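[job 0412] stage=fold_complex status=start
inputs:
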Amino acid sequence: MWLLPVLGLIIGVLIGSALTFQVPVTYVKYMSIAVLASLDSVFGGIRAIMEDLFDGTVLLTGFFTNALLAALLAYLGDRLGVDLYYAAVFAFGVRLFQNLAGIRHKLLLNYRNKKYHSRGEQP
Amino acid sequence: MTRQRWSVPMTVVFILIGILLSLQFQAQNRFASDLSMQRTENLIAMVRDLSEKRQKLAIELIDLNSKLRAQAESDRDEKKLVESLKEELTKMKMVNGTIELRGPGLQILIEKHLPILYIDIIHIVNELWAAGAEAISVNDCRITSSTAIFYTEDSHSMSITVDNIKLEYPIIIRAIGEPNNLEKGLTIPGGIMDNLALFNAYPLLTKVDEQTIPAVHELPHFYFASEYKPLEKPAASNTQPAARP
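[job 0412] stage=fold_complex status=done
writing structure:
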């Protein structure tokens, strides 16, 4: 069930380490924000799957736009002298933890449901 | 088949996040090792470390330089030694007459008709040595420590020999030294020239600025003589010699 995505992750990491493309040191900060946004999107997607609300289009668009916007905003903030970087970190961080919490809740519920079913009880 | 619906986009996203993560990981590593991103304390520590290292290296450099200098000096000393040995050798050769010499000095010309005996030649040579001659030759024979001046007779004549070689007339005695001193040594009143004048023998003296004196024809062989090395006394032992009764 989760085999394909996990394989995808491994392949991605391998591709990334095989790439000789190097991010310029100046953009590392914005890149990190983009990665955070993407991670948030991924966890959001997992949560959506758990809650049966998954939409592939939303996930993909969200993935790219979130990452790009986060990076752009951080960059713009640097140009304007406003530390939007931290705002982005905060926002995405909070959302990431919310998503993780949601995933945990769903996992627990599923587990309990399974237990009840195995005992032959109705929730 | 809800799974089929979500697994493809999810996989794509996971591939992308994998790429992003590994890229970011590498970039962050480089970023963290970049000097401009280091914490001040770390930088201070680095600077301290590096300056310590540099000091150590500088000390080592001084050390090595002094070693180099010492080496060069010993090299120069060796060269000096070789140089002085060569000088010594040349001096020895000059003394032993194994090399040709040149320099200012005196020439004594003895014509055939002069009543000169071998003993007179010996006297002249001795007188020249006494007057500070550094090298002497009679005709082409270099006078060394083992030169023998004598005479030989045959049926109708007598001739002077140097090392058993008959001297041809005119006999030319050459001496290297201070020309004036050499001349004075011979012409001193009551000296050898006066003596010879009593017998009407007047050798002709000429001071010269430059003349060559030949080397000996053959080196002396030493069949019996060898260097004498006195036996080294055994080091005094610190044990007291037993008292003799």
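[job 0412] summary: The first helix of chain B runs from residue 2 to 33.
[job 0412] exit 0
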